[in-house]
Amino acid sequence: MQKVLILDFGAQYSQLIARRVREQNVYCEVKPFSVTAQQVRDFAPIGIILSGGPQSVYAAGSPQVDPDLFTLGVPVLGICYGCQLIAHTLGGEVTAAQDDTAREYGKTRTVFDTSCKLFAGLREESVTWMSHGDYMAKVPAGFTLCAHSDACPTVGICDETRGFYGVQFHPEVNHTEQGAEILHNFLYAICGAVGDWTMADYRQTAIRSIRETVGTGRALLALSGGVDSSVAAALMAEAIGSQLTCVFVDHGLMRKDEGDEVEAAFSKWDIHFVRVNAEGRFLGKLAGVCDPETKRKIIGEEFIRVFEAEAKKIGAVEFLVQGTIYPDVIESGLGNSAVIKSHHNVGGLPDYVDFKQIIEPLRMLFKDEVRQLGRELGLPEYLVMRQPFPGPGLAIRVIGDITKDKLDTLREADFIFRDEVAKVGYDRQMNQYFAVLTSMRSVGVMGDGRTYDYTLALRGVTTTDFMTADWARIPYDLLDRVSTRIVNEVRGINRIVYDITSKPPATIEWE
Ligand code: XMP
């Protein structure tokens, strides 16, 4: 399989560059800028992309590349900081832009020289997205200019003989109109990519490698029903069948029919599927508990207890499978580069199960690739496209104390909400949406009678990272259908409200 190497200079966009490359069916990996030319040679990429970054290439202590990188005979594309680094390393000059010259932020009209391979076949003029305060005052020997904007004469540079290209703008962001075409040109016309990264191929490669690793050993996996653990389970099931045990702890806090759906999805594989019905146990522990953090703690601890008990029954296993995915790996810090954010899935190995080695079969995949692989493995769409669902489940969507009745009421209402949203395809417009049982009662009237029932809140958000979110502008007629159905079909609810707060100041979940 052909590989492209992305060197990360602390850009918020290096993940995005990787996704864009993979979308063009070319495999790539993100590595820290500090890798040596020898390490790069060993990795044997068909092309190298230098990412953007927050620093100035001429500043003391700013990240630099091993200059021998430019002697490997491998094409290089520098983006923003990466572009300036090419200029800086190869003898050009980068300086801070003065106010009235080449400092650019945001959408910028850009003119391309379409005789340059990087821009071949493009419209000569289009919008690109810029974010730079430095610019190349002098390009290195052997380079020519191949793109400019009104403010900046050095938006694009190239040395076609050596295969070195640099752009000041970000081709990976959607605001850059011909960004995908530019990356396509770099990958296919310049690096000679053939487009051999497909999930069908990955499936075969991963299965072979899992079989080699596991041999005749046994593997254990905690299945939550979320996308990552489900796809990891399906891939393992396909690879090692009955050597795999999946433990699915049903804590009774799932959405309507979810437990059965998960079980049904795995019935086609010859694996040991253990569904632990622990509803009574969880609800017993949660009885009378109102504080959200206490709920989380109880559920987390109880989950470990139940899983541990099941694992003990199974005995020692050689392998524990985790559904870690590539963004977790990148965000946890790339080897010796700065840690951006630590992530609970990486590094924090559970110490309560007796196993020799961890297997992370999705470790190199992005979320959309995980979904594609799930489809490839024949998992149903409702599992593959599942929206994120918190580990503590509906326990943090029933405000205050939890009872089985309240959970059942919420399950019905939440199901209707999801059903109506899906019917009109509005699920594609939101990243997460659900119902919350507020536990607040108010007076209503139904038929001729007075009611005194619960208020249900609907929540729908759009977000890319779940760190910030905006409330979804769900069409009124859709809200109307949901509201009418819920008050008519679900006993115990007589009032529906829609949450119109963003995050911050609110959070996505209510607890
Ligand atoms: P908040 O409510 O913090 O949620 O804005 C951000 C995202 O995290 C999910 N979430 C959780 N996921 N355990 C989880 O596994 C939790 O305790 C938890 N709390 C919130 C939430 O659904 C949203 O996607």
Question: Can you offer a commentary on this structure?
Answer:
- The chain is of the alpha/beta class and 511 residues long.
- It has helices at residues 14-23, 37-43, 81-89, 179-190, 199-214, 227-240, 258-265, 279-286, 292-314, 326-331, 367-376, 381-384, 404-423, 476-489; strands spanning 3-8, 27-32, 47-50, 76-79, 93-96, 104-112, 125-132, 134-138, 144-149, 156-159, 164-167, 219-222, 244-250, 272-277, 319-321, 357-359, 432-446, 449-462, 470-471, 493-498.
- The radius of gyration is 27 Å and the shape is globular.
- Strand 18 and strand 19 (470-471) form a beta hairpin.
- A nine-stranded mixed sheet has the order 2-1-3-4-11-10-9-6-7, sandwiched between helices. It has a five-stranded parallel sheet with strand order 14-13-12-15-16, with helices on both faces.
- Residues 296, 388, 390-392, 432, 466, 503, 507-509 line the site of xanthosine-5'-monophosphate.
- Can you list the strand order of the major beta sheet? 2-1-3-4-11-10-9-6-7
What class do helices, strands and sheet pairing give?
alpha/beta
- The best one-word shape is globular
Q: Helix segment count? A: 14
- Secondary structure tally: strands: 20
Stretches with pLDDT under 50, minimum 5 residues: 335-349
End-to-end gap: 46 Å
| Major sheet characteristics | 9 strands, mixed
Radius of gyration (CA) equals 27 Å
Give the bound compounds.
xanthosine-5'-monophosphate
The level of helicity is 25-40%
What number is the mean pLDDT? 92
Strand content: 15-25%
